[in-house]
Each structure stands twice: as structure tokens, then as C-alpha cells.
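Shipment paperwork, digital attachment
Item: protein structure file
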Amino acid sequence: MPLDPSIKSVLVIGSGPIVIGQACEFDYSGTQACRVLRAEGIRVILVNSNPATIMTDPEFADATYIEPITPEIIEQIIALEKPDAVLATLGGQTALNAAIGLFERGTLAKYGVKLIGADVDAIQRGENRELFRGIVEKIGGESAKSIICHTMEEIFAAVIQLNYPVVVRPSFTMGGLGSGIAFNEEELSQIAGAGLRHSPTSEVLLEESILGWKEYELEVMRDHKDNVVIVCTIENLDPMGVHTGDSITVAPAMTLTDVEYQKLRDLSIDIIREVGVATGGCNIQFAVNPDNGRIIVIEMNPRVSRSSALASKATGFPIAKIATKLAIGYTLDEITNDITKTTPASFEPTLDYVVVKVPRFAFEKFADADPRLTTTMKSVGEAMAIGRCFSEALMKALRSLERKEAIFSWPQISEQEKANLLVSMRIPTEYRLQQVQKAMWAGASIEDVFAATKIDPWYLRQIQIINEQAFALTQLGELTAEKLREAKSNGFSDNQIASLRGLAEEDVRRERHHLGIRPVYKTVDTCAAEFEAFTPYHYSSYEEESEVKPRTTPAVIILGSGPNRIGQGIEFDYSCVHASFVLREAGYETIMVNCNPETVSTDYDTSNRLYFEPLTLEDVIEVVHAESLAGPVLGVITQLGGQTPLGLAAGLKAAGITILGTSPDAINLAEERGAFGNILKEQGLTAPEFGMAASQLEAITIAQRIGYPVLVRPSFVLGGRGMEIVYDDAALGGFITRATDITPDHPVLVDRFLDSAIEIDVDALFDGEELFLGGVMEHIEEAGIHSGDSACVLPSMTVTAAQLVEIRQATEKIARGVDVRGLINIQFAIAENTLYVLEANPRASRTVPFVSKATGVALAKAAARISVGSTIAQLRSEKLLPATGDGVAKGISVKEAVLPWNRFRRSDGRGVDAVLGPEMRSTGEVMGISPTFGESYAKSQIAAFGPLPKAGTVFISLANKDKDSGIQAALGLQQCGFRILATEGTAAFLNKHGVTCVTVRKNSEGTGPMGERTIVEIINSGDIDLVINTPVGRGTRQDGWAIRTASVQRSIPIITTTAGFSAAVEGIRFLQSNSLSIKSLQKWLG
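Attachment content:
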């Protein structure tokens, strides 16, 4: 049965901001859904609060609402737009929870809207652990023994039956939030207490531990005629106990016997039928006991999940696209496979290669966080690689992570070190596989390592093979073609071979090219080459036959941004995808190189050709070589994917490859402080005073000359890594000792820190002649907080017209001085009416998508065209840019960062500190757009999970330097009718300035003689609605730390800057007197 004729318009619910546990895989799936629905002639209405994704671009839906994803707001949208159906299975847990909210409010019934994809009953059956257990039992499967609890008393009673260790899982949370494994009573009260708080239904499941069992996932699809296909089996290399999002995973499953596989397959088909996911995809997780083969069904997600993105990219079977078609009435046998064009979607994919996914973590951003991997997901991104054998795929995936520590190395290891490794690998951490590899290199047996880690012996044998290969390379004698070819086909990089042979990487590459050993590129074809593939989706391999087809049109190669991480997220993928679309329209062929399975750029239909390869110099040079043989190559675009491709630009140029857009020398001008300082001098612009220090003594001399506070950092960083603000010599000395290993051959920079300056962010385009100013954003948080973590507003609110002219002139001078071709992002600060230049980045920045949506100008598209030679004048005439003038904001847009504090705990179970600083820690962002600042800010807070209260009690504690600037805001709260609490110092100060407040005890003072509670006790009892706490110093001894972590654990909105405090008061004023308005982006941009 084809299209359901009753569906003329569909509301798609997106997944909101990127958080740990729900990353860009849902943008990929939501974008696919919008594209499919529109191709079928259905009107698409989209709600999603995330500006960084391409899905909220105006061209992907007919009406795009960048609004908070709450049932109240969605009800307003439904009332206005009157869709026939709601599709909620492609927006992660956020969309599912919103759909259930709409059902419970009676919204769906009131407006006669149906849920497609999965109905509420199916969602409940899949998500509610008790109902799901019943289903598993009914079909003859087995679940882990478990007990549901709602209070701590019930929890302690339950553990007597189940014994320690016991697994704690809260209901209706995402990415295992609040879950963990408790080995004793103390841990149980800590984990389960947090679990009860995180679960929207205050319900926790305790279950028997299946630690050390093997973990598998099956990706299953079903249509309304009950056809079911298994798209992919995924095996976790890490045994049970590590969240699947944090495990290294392999597809297809390697260590299943055929009988076991058939059992998992039958169980999956029975489960999807019984749960009643009528149309679409779902993901089912199993645990298998390695001793006796007992199979336990862990859980299912009745929606497209993180694994679905991986399975799609691993097989070439576009799960999200097909799930959408099934939801609007098609059946699997009616949908053709895009890749072969001859087989239907009911034809299960077969793989003739191995896929490995490796997670990327960000523990270095949270110095005091517990580094152990548990059932709470902590990774921020992932890289995937494809190879002809497991070792090749694994080695490629590890180098795709862009972390030196992740890549296998073969040092000398003592017996004592080997013994230590065998102990430390018992606890899963980020680099456990590297510990395994080193221990085995030092002679540990497969049995020893299996006993310590429970990693299947088959994988350990593969690592042994890699080590044997490394040993062969260290042997004397010449590096023969045969030896080299064997190492390459096992996934060794030129760099690894060089270090084993004691050579330079260039020498190995030269010798390899001389011997004619180069990779060929195979195709991902869904059918193990049984039918011809029409989509060029390639991976490298050291075999004989290349499958790259010749072409005649000139091609542009675009380098993506690699695995998602803090500081380099999907905002950069957004720019790469825009470039691909616009250059295809302009008549070029586009070739994407990337290794991130979660994104839109690695969809096989985004570009003309896709290479799923690591973004290292070696791998990119080989792709360029293969494409140069296939047809004309215009050059490579490196300035859209963030720091990753920028770092390759100089090496590619040295290898004789054309770099399009801003030249590597110009990029270096802006990154190298001395050279950039000269440009500013020539143009008569001011920068904060700074110096470069190669030693501690030098640094202290500079700091004393400039005057504290100073901002110190290593040169060349993205996302503010390793930056600190220090207030005295001692703190500076401490920083230098820690920072020396960040970039050994780069000195440390010491800058004057502009206390309480206003920070400005500018995105602009330059073609060598003319400047187009995209937008001037004003940060809400004061200087000293990383721009990626600061809320910002467009248009700027406090910058005068004269200052705007000065900012435009300065931007043009810098763009001309650096000689930019394309995008440039400049950060300015205004202090005491002087404009300071903080830094300039001649590349796409993370604010490009936000500015593009606020002004309606596609900056990334324009930048891509400029890099292939178009001028701004030309782009104006083609209507890609406005006919005259600069970018103008429509409405008032506020961007707010979303921070992952609730994901991390210290080893002792206390929270990590929620203070913002110069080091970026946010994982994603949201946007609020409306006619006034107050409303936009209020919307951004709702969308970023910290909704402002309309009434109640506020706790205020200000550092001395912030007391003066906090008075106005505190008076504002009083006028709004809030009850104000404060600790002694702040209370005295506020009372003196006309703000009535109640004094409460500090945490360090302890409970009073009459049982007066401390502020932390009051927060923990849930009696406070908003916390304002500006930090005095860093460190856990401080009272502020206890207040902030208590607020995070109770999910109370917390504001740590006075500027944020003032903005919050404006937001509260709006909420008290108005209800939130909604308006689609298309109407805003008119």
C-alpha cells in the first residue's frame, strides 16, 4: 500500500540540543525525515530548539519552529499549523517524551492528530521496563532478574534478594543518565538516590548484575504488513558494564555462532511484533553469557537510536529515510534500495567488510570527574572506520579519533609495568584497549588478559596479530614491498611503521610510493557486490582493484570535522554540508572525506562521492591522489570543518595539493601571535597587552609588567583547551608546570585579562575586495568565559552605533591584512570605551549556523562559493547574499550553551563544579527567537533545561568583585515578588542597598545550635527555585562549590555570572506578565 492519503502535513519533533547520550545522530535522522516527507509532497512542520543543525535551516521544512521542545509549546504549534500527524520516532528520547506529554495533556485527541511511526502504547511497551519484561517473557525470552523501586527503603529491601553488585536503572532517561553499578551499600544509596531524582517518574529498576557478559545489538525494521528485516548486528568489544555508547563496537558481530545469531534474530522479530512498533526502526540489546550461552534481553528503544546511525553508515541502508517512508504508509517491498537501485528495502544488507566504531571522550575538560566507564554514557562523539579485516578497521578507527594516546605504540615495557597494566585494565577507562595492547606486547597471555577484562579471546588474538606484525617490522633487514604491503593491509599508518623502523614518516611514504604501494578504494554496496552499486560511498584497502569511477566534471574535495567533541561539534559539519550543496548547484562535483557516522555530511547522498576515511595527512593525500587519477580536481576546502582540517592545510600544500579559500600562510598569520600582532600594529588596532614565555621566570616577569589578572594559554588551541585566568605569581607557576606538555614546541601566551569587559563575536565574509558583515553578536556573560559557553544575543544590545561602525572597520582591516578568502570570525572586547581585538580565526566558526538563522543569510554557502573564485558582488546578484548592505537580524535571537554537568561525578560521588571559565565545556546549544530580549532569553533557558521560575525563593551569593554589579538585578527580583535568601556577607550588602533578604548559614558553618539548616541543606530539600552564585576561587574547599553541585544534582537553575543574573531578571519579568509567543523561522525571515 503506497502513501497514506489522509496525511497531508506532518509535525516532526527534533531532538533539541546536543547532549551527552543524544548527539548529532538525531539531526541526521531528522534531516532525512524532512527530506523524505517533502519529496512525497507532504507539508513539513518542524520543532527543534537547536540552531547548530542543518535540519533547522529554513529550506528543510515548510514551517520551522526554533522553539523549546515542551508539550505546551508544541500544543501552540499544533493549534496554529493543524498537522494531520506527528512523527516522534526520529528525535531521540526528547521527541518520544514530548509525544507522551502531548498524549497525556490530551492535545493529540483535542486536535485530532495521530502519532505515526510508533503509537503511545508501543512507546510505553518498549520504554516502561515492567511492561517490556512481560513481553519478553511472553515470547519465551529471558530478562535479568529485577525489582522496581520508588523509595530508598524499597531499594535496600530489594538488594537483599538480588545481592551485590547490582545495576541501577532509572525509567525514561536518555543515554543511561543516573544509572550505575553498585558494589556496596554506600554506592547504592549514592547511585539510586541520584537515579530517583533523574527519573521523571521517580522510579528505579534494580537488577542482577550481568557484568562481563558479551553484549550485542540488533537493528530491526518492520512495516504495517508485518514484514521484518534485520538491518545489522553490532557486537560490543567491551563486555557488559560499559554503556554501549561508550563501548568500542564492531559490525557485523564477529564471535556469534550461527545458532546463537539465529536465536537473537528470532527473539528480535518476536519482540518488535509484540511491542507493536508498527512502522519503522528499533534497536534491541542482548547480553550473552560466554560460559553457557544464556541469552538475556536487556532493553529496546522503540525509535531510531544512536546505533541506527551507525548501522546506516555501516551498511549503506538508510534507516531513518526508510523509517519515515514506512510511517507514511509504504511497505518495505515497495521501497527501492538507493544504492543498488534494483533490490527492495526488504532485502537484508550483507557486509563483505568490517566496521569498527570507537568513542571519543572529554575527560580532560572535567579534571575532577571520575574516569571510570559505567552504564552512564560519558562519550561526546565517535569515529567509525571500514576495513577488509578487523585489524585494519580498528587501526583506522583509532587514528580517526585524533588523539595521540589512542593510537597503538610499541615501547619497551618492564615486568613491573606489565603487572600494573594487568591490574589497571580490570576497570574500564577511556584507554583500556591500549593497556591491553601494551600488556600483550610485553608478553601477557590471552588467558591473563581475558581474566582481567572479559574481552572475548577472538579480539585478543587479533591484537596479538597486530603486535606480531609490529615485531616483524622492528627486525633488521630491508623494508621489502611484501613486508610493507602486509603492514598496510593490517591498518598500520606510515607514522607507526616509521616509529617502529626508526625513520621519519616522510621517508616511509616516499619508499611506499616508490614501490607503488597505494590503497585502492572499495564501495559500500549493501549486498556484498552481488548487484552493482550506484552510489560512490568508498573506503580504502590495500588490495588490487580500485572501484573509483572516472569523471569529467571538475571536483572540489571537502574535509569534514571528524568525531564530535567539545569545542568542535556539528556546527562545523553544518558548514561542510552547505558547501557541498551549493557547489553541486554551481556545477562542480563534491567529494566529502569524513569519519563521523553521526552526521549529515557522511550521508551517501549529501555529496557526489563520500570517502569514509580518517582525517590524517596520509589518508587525505591518498584520497586526493585517487581522485586526481579519476578526473580534474580543483582543490581542497579546509576552512569549514574546524581545527581538524585546518591543521592539515599546511601539510597538504607542502605535498603539492591546491588549498581553496584562505591560504595556509594566511591562516598561520592569524594563528601566530607575533605575526598577528604586527598586522594589528600596521592597521592601528589595539590588542590586550601580551607576552610569550618559554619558561616560568619569563612568564612571571611578563605578568608583573602587564599586571594581574592575566589569561595564560598554550598557543594554537581550539575550544580554549588549557586556558586559565590567574590572579597571582603562585597560580601562574602552577599553570606553567601543568601546561608544558600541551604543546612542547610552542611557548605559553600571557595576556592581560580584561575584567568585566563586554565581549563581541563577529562573523564576516571577505573576497579580497569587499567585506560582508554577517552579524555582530554580544556575549551575555562577561569576558573570561569561553565564547562557546557564553550565551549571546544578535543584534547586540549595548553596543552604540558609533562602536558598530568601528567594529566593521576593524573587521575589514583585519580581513584585508590577513588576506582572507571566505569566512573569518573575530572576537573583540569593549572595555572603558576602547575596542580591543582578542583573536581572529580565518575559518568557519561555531556561530555560523546561529547567525545564518538569525539573519536569513547562508554564510557557509557564500564562503564555499568565494573559495572557488566567486566575488561578493556576484553572490549579491545571484541573491545568495542581500542585494545591498550587511546581514540584518530579524527579531532578537539568543543563543545559550548546554552543559553536561549532570553526566559527571567525582570518584567520591560528589558532582563536578558547574563554573564557567575560559575552557569550553558545553556540548551543544539552543536558540530562542522572539520580538524582545526578555522573551528570547526566557525561551533559551527553557530549551537549555534550566527554565526560569515565575515566583518562589532565590538564593544569592556574590563574590566581592561582583557585589556592585548585582544590586540592580537583586532589586529587580524583589520587585518581581521573589523571596531572597543570602549568606552573611551578601545579605548585609543587599540589605544596606534596599534589598530585603533572609540570612542563611554557609555550608562550612554547619547546622546551627537550634537546628538552623545550611544553604546546601535547604537546596537539597528542594525549597529553592533559582540559585545565583558567582565564584570566588576554584577548588572543592570553597562553599560555592558545594552550593553549585547541590543545585546541579537537584536540577535547580544556577547562574554563575552577574551578567547572566541581569538577563535572567529580564526573562522573569517577561514570563510573569506574558505567555510565550511562537513564529516560524520562515515568517521571521519573510
